[in-house]
Amino acid sequence: MKKRILVIDDDITILQALQMTFEDEGYEVEASPNGKPVESINGYQPNVVLLDIMLAGEDGRKLAKKIRSKFPDKPTIIIISAMADAKESALKSGADHFVAKPFDLDHIVELADQACNGG
Question: Which fold, 4-116?
């Protein structure tokens, strides 16, 4: 099974770092600086959506709610944020995991791998 991840972050440096990391780990990566790919998520069918809470013009929690309402069981949603106190609201929005910035890339890859392997 192909490992697919949709990464949404408006910080281009973080977006590129995440994209390169996941490509190096064998993932097919769709990367976006905004939430527009959420509308076409069904066609892409990612195993994991990794998104930031603070996006230019959009709240990642709202995107997580949209994704979860359209796809109740999949994909696994991981929200990242510099706001460490946002964990509760992130999980209430439908995220499966919350990771505070600065984050450990290995930890995020581990969470994504678990999702892809049914864990």
Answer: Rossmann fold (3.40.50)
Residue with tokens 């959506």: 49
SS3 content of the chain, % helix, strand, coil (to 5): 45, 25, 30
E strand residue ranges, the chain: 4-8, 28-32, 48-52, 54-55, 58-59, 76-81, 97-100
pLDDT digits (tens, 9 = 90+) for 86-105: 999 999 999 999 999 889 99
Question: Would you list the domain boundaries of the chain?
Answer: 4-116
Q: Quick one: what percent of the chain has pLDDT higher than 70?
A: 98
For residue 1, the number of C-alpha atoms closer than 13 Å in the C-beta half-sphere is 11
pTM of the model: 0.93
